[in-house]
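I hope you will forgive my troubling you with a question about protein structure. I should value your view on which stretches of the chain appear to form regular backbone elements. Here, with my thanks, is the record as I have it:
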Amino acid sequence: MILDSFRLDGKVAIVTGCRTGLGQGMAVGLAEAGADVVGVGSTDLKETQRLVEGLGRKFAAVKANLMEMEAIPTVIEAAINSFGKIDILVNNAGIIRREDAIDFSEKDWDDVMDINVKMVFFLSQAVAKQFIAQGSGGKIVNIASMLSFQGGIRVPSYTASKSGVMGITRLMANEWAKHNININAIAPGYMATDNTAALRADESRSNEILGRIPASRWGTNDDLKGPVVFLSSAASDYINGYTVAVDGGWLAR
């Protein structure tokens, strides 16, 4: 039955940056589909753990600073020690820095690029090596952005990093599909998260944004559950290197 292809029973998913917001929503969505979750973050993940375990799934919390490459073996070892394998990686962790391009600092450039694209690549590389060693393939889902498609303003390193995410998603798919590894990305539109709190609080700017979205609303955590489960499941086995926009129609306008 086709619905069985979406089930993730017995699967183990690593989700980075899942303390709140979209990352938490995706971790919960994967658990709802049957997966156990390895949550990675630099702070307390107790709320996400409570939500996942409340669904009858297991949760392993890993405290790691994903701006440092040394975090990678910690994440891999924690997943293997907790569950014995890895089936899914969701590269959600990321940061944004806002400043006019004319005044943008090297530090703000490097910080964003390090976590948003460098860590995404090298954590994916480490997980892909584990997939190959296991001999069972796997799924990698990267979190891109509307700014993978557009330039934006006042976010030069974020735009560069998210454009990079789309590019390396294609590159990894080209090289690793032969190992039964699927690498795709989700590009959220304007979502109701901490990153957009200031925009949503500005009534004029919020109305301007909503007027541009055919769905006439901000996206929610639940809006990413379906796409991440689909791209993590057998239902997407012949999809590779693609970036799915979840934007309420923003790009279609």
Observations:
- The mean pLDDT is 97.
